[in-house]
Amino acid sequence: MSGALSAAAFIAFALAFLPLLLHLRSRNIPLLSIIAWIAVSDLVYGINSVIWDENIDIVASPWCDITTKLKIGANIALPASTLVLALRVYRITLQKGRLGMPSELGVCLGFPFIIMVLHTIVQGHRFDVYEDFGCTPAIFVSIPSIIILDIPPLVASAVALIYCSLALVNFAKQRRAFLLLTRQPHSSQITKGGYLRLVLLVLVLGVWNALVIALTRASAYKNGLLPWTNWDDVHADFWLVSAYPLALVPADILGWLYFSWAAVPISSFFVFGFFGFGGDTTGTYRAVGAWFNASMLRRGTGFQSTVASHGSEASQADLTKDHHHGRSVA
């Protein structure tokens, strides 16, 4: 089974990494953040599945210390980045500029880092190791863990869905104005298809993130909460590493383990489905294919010059500019 897990994770990583390359020039911070967090998570999952293939050996502890924190960060980073993207698509319908880059980076990167640090409060021990899955974060299930780890992503997902709904309502009401805006010379980067892809991605990820968080955390808390008494009691065995062979994991817990693991690769398919196809991206794929063919046959002018003309189109496809100031807002 581990071979299937690692293969699925690496395939998902490739599917997320391609749109990331195609949209780097867009400077769409929330979109790039969503894709980057998903891609990094896929890569971590794949490496973990290789290291702990049919074993629960306590190895690569520093790797686990880092990646378990990244998993905690990703759990909030994806809903938070989706919220910022939802705010972008909403502000487009109001013909307003995007938030400043520092604000977007603060929500998409800074806030997850804060949650990673705060996780230490409810980190009862170092980490857990599951056969085939590798290291996972340790969480002292308690009221503080609900406040720190569960409420923020649920709230972010809910607010993202609200902004997305408002954006769709405004788009329907002002459809003619939006179409006129796309025809303005200084707004040539706005496309109806690109805008709708952003809206649909927010809608899908908002629902998916909320569903995954609600179901997985409800499963974790089904046996009740532990009393968070004081720091010393909660962290008495902080350096403990618990290891679990799959044969000893109860069937219901194992099912939720598979579900929570699969959530990130599934998100990769969502991203690729919305941004891995279309005329603006297939042109880049053709350019890469032409470069590869030329390189293998020792002909052609090189990859960079070939991709540049196509890649610029792909990277600009989902950009929008402020109607009054010409700033990128998507």
TrEMBL record:
Predominant subcellular localization, coarse grouping: membrane
GO molecular function: mating-type factor pheromone receptor activity
Membrane topology category: Multi-pass membrane protein
Protein's cellular compartments: Membrane
Keywords recorded for this protein, A-Z: G-protein coupled receptor, Membrane, Pheromone response, Receptor, Transducer, Transmembrane, Transmembrane helix
A biological process term (GO) from this entry: pheromone-dependent signal transduction involved in conjugation with cellular fusion
Pfam families: STE3 (PF02076)
InterPro entries: GPCR_STE3 (IPR001499)
Parts of the chain that traverse the membrane: 6-24, 31-52, 72-90, 102-122, 154-173, 194-215, 256-277
Gene Ontology, cellular component aspect: plasma membrane
Assigned protein family: Belongs to the G-protein coupled receptor 4 family.
Name by which UniProt lists this protein: GPCR fungal pheromone mating factor
Originating organism: Mycena metata
